C-alpha cells in the first residue's frame, strides 16, 4: 500500500528510522519488497532523476505497481530523490508519487526557500508531502557532485526559519555524511551535536539523513577479490542509526550499499562461471542477497517488526 511519508514519520518519530532505498530495475524492486516483508518493516522507495531516465519513468512506476499487487501486506511511500524543480513538478502532476524532494541546497538561503516554497504549494494542493535540504553533503551521487571543500553542515540557527518560511514537511540535514562510497576519507564524522541542536529548534519535526550507506568492508573486499578496484571506501557505522532516530531522524537514505551488493554478486558470479551468458542466474542470486541485506539494514534502523503497528495507524 502506498502512503505518504507523513504517515510513516508519525509512526517512527523518536523510536526508529524508515529506510529509504533507491531502485533502478526489476531485481532491486523485488529484492527490496522481499527484504521488507521478511523483516516486517515499512519502507520508502526512492526514485532518482537518474533512475527515471535510465529506463523510463513509466517502467519504474509499473514495476512498483506490480510489486504492490504481489506484496499486498507491504506499506511504503514512493519518493522522488534529489529532484530539481522541473522534475518535482512532473512527479507531482503524475499523481503517482506520495512524496518529493526538492534539492535547492546549492542555492543561497533565500533562493532555496523560494524554490522550495513553489514546490510545496504545488505538492500540498495534491496531497503530496515535500522534503527539502539545508546544508550540502560532499561526495558524488548521480548528478549531485560536491567537493569536500564545498560541503557545509546545516546551521541549527537557520533550520527553524527555513522550515517555517518554506513550508516543507521534512528536512534533510547535513551532519557529516557524504554521498557515494567514499564517505569518511577525510576529517568527516557524524555530528550528533549539530543534530541535537537542530532537534531542539524543531522539536517533533521529521529530519532526514542522506548519504548513509555503511559501505560494508566485506562487500568491498569481495568486490576487489573478484577484480574490482574500490580502495579506501568507507561508510557510516550502521550502529549509529538508532541514536540518529532518537534525535529526530525519521528517514535514512541508503543507495550505495545496494549498488555494492549488485556489483559483488555479478563480479563473483561471472568470475566463477565465465562460460555463462544468461542474465537470470546472477539476477536471482542478487534478489536473494539484496533481500537479506535489506532485512539486516532494517534491523539496524529499528524499523524491523514495525509493519503491524503502521497498519494499525493507517487503518485508524
Automatic annotation (TrEMBL):
<feature type="binding site">
    <location>
        <begin position="253"/>
        <end position="256"/>
    </location>
    <ligand>
        <name>dihydroxyacetone phosphate</name>
    </ligand>
</feature>
<feature type="binding site">
    <location>
        <position position="210"/>
    </location>
    <ligand>
        <name>Zn(2+) 1</name>
    </ligand>
</feature>
<dbReference type="InterPro" id="IPR013785">
    <property type="entry name" value="Aldolase_TIM"/>
</dbReference>
<keyword id="KW-0479">Metal-binding</keyword>
<feature type="binding site">
    <location>
        <position position="103"/>
    </location>
    <ligand>
        <name>Zn(2+) 2</name>
    </ligand>
</feature>
<keyword id="KW-0862">Zinc</keyword>
<dbReference type="InterPro" id="IPR050246">
    <property type="entry name" value="Class_II_FBP_aldolase"/>
</dbReference>
<keyword id="KW-0456">Lyase</keyword>
<dbReference type="GO" id="GO:0005975">
    <property type="term" value="P:carbohydrate metabolic process"/>
</dbReference>
<dbReference type="InterPro" id="IPR000771">
    <property type="entry name" value="FBA_II"/>
</dbReference>
<dbReference type="Pfam" id="PF01116">
    <property type="entry name" value="F_bP_aldolase"/>
</dbReference>
<feature type="binding site">
    <location>
        <begin position="211"/>
        <end position="213"/>
    </location>
    <ligand>
        <name>dihydroxyacetone phosphate</name>
    </ligand>
</feature>
<protein>
    <submittedName>
        <fullName>Fructose-bisphosphate aldolase</fullName>
        <ecNumber>4.1.2.13</ecNumber>
    </submittedName>
</protein>
<feature type="binding site">
    <location>
        <position position="82"/>
    </location>
    <ligand>
        <name>Zn(2+) 1</name>
    </ligand>
</feature>
<feature type="active site" description="Proton donor">
    <location>
        <position position="81"/>
    </location>
</feature>
<dbReference type="GO" id="GO:0008270">
    <property type="term" value="F:zinc ion binding"/>
</dbReference>
<dbReference type="GO" id="GO:0004332">
    <property type="term" value="F:fructose-bisphosphate aldolase activity"/>
</dbReference>
<feature type="binding site">
    <location>
        <position position="179"/>
    </location>
    <ligand>
        <name>Zn(2+) 1</name>
    </ligand>
</feature>
<feature type="binding site">
    <location>
        <position position="180"/>
    </location>
    <ligand>
        <name>dihydroxyacetone phosphate</name>
    </ligand>
</feature>
<feature type="binding site">
    <location>
        <position position="133"/>
    </location>
    <ligand>
        <name>Zn(2+) 2</name>
    </ligand>
</feature>
Amino acid at each position: 500500500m502506498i502512503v505518504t511519508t507523513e504517515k510513516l514519520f508519525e509512526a517512527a518519530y523518536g523510536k526508529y528510522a524508515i529506510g529509504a532505498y533507491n531502485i533502478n530495475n526489476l531485481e532491486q524492486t523485488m529484492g527490496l519488497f522481499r527484504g521488507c516483508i521478511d523483516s516486517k518493516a515499512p519502507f520508502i522507495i526512492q526514485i532518482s532523476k537518474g533512475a527515471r531516465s535510465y529506463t523510463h519513468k513509466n517502467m519504474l512506476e509499473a514495476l512498483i505497481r506490480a510489486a504492490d499487487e504481489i506484496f499486498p501486506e507491504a506499506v511504503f511511500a514512493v519518493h522522488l530523490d534529489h529532484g530539481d524543480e522541473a522534475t518535482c513538478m512532473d512527479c507531482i502532476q503524475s499523481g503517482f508519487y506520495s512524496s518529493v524532494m526538492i534539492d535547492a541546497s546549492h542555492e543561497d538561503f533565500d533562493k532555496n526557500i523560494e524554490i522550495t516554497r513553489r514546490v510545496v504549494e504545488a505538492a500540498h494542493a495534491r496531497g503530496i508531502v515535500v522534503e527539502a535540504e539545508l546544508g550540502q553533503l560532499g561526495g558524488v551521487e548521480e548528478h549531485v557532485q560536491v567537493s569536500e571543500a564545498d560541503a557545509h553542515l546545516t546551521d541549527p540557527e537557520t533550520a527553524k526559519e527555513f522550515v517555517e518560511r518554506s513550508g516543507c514537511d521534512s528536512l534533510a540535514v547535513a551532519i557529516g555524511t557524504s554521498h557515494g562510497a567514499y564517505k569518511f576519507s577525510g576529517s568527516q564524522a557524524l555530528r550528533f551535536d549539530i543534530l541535537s541542536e537542530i532537534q531542539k529548534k524543531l522539536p517533533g519535526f521529521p529530519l532526514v539523513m542522506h548519504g548513509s550507506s555503511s559501505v560494508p568492508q566485506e562487500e568491498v573486499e569481495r568486490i576487489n577479490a573478484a577484480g574490482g578496484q574500490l580502495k579506501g571506501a568507507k561508510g557510516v557505522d550502521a550502529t549509529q542509526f538508532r541514536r540518529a532516530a532518537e534525535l529526530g531522524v525519521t528517514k535514512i537514505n541508503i543507495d550505495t550499499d545496494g549498488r555494492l551488493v549488485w556489483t559483488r554478486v555479478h563480479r563473483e558470479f561471472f568470475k566463477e562461471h565465465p562460460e555463462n551468458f544468461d542474465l537470470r542466474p546472477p539476477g536471482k542470486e542478487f534478489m536473494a542477497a539484496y533481500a537479506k541485506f535489506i532485512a539486516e539494514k532494517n534491523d539496524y534502523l529499528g524499523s524491523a517488526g514495525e509493519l503491524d503497528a503502521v497498519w494499525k495507524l493507517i487503518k485508524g
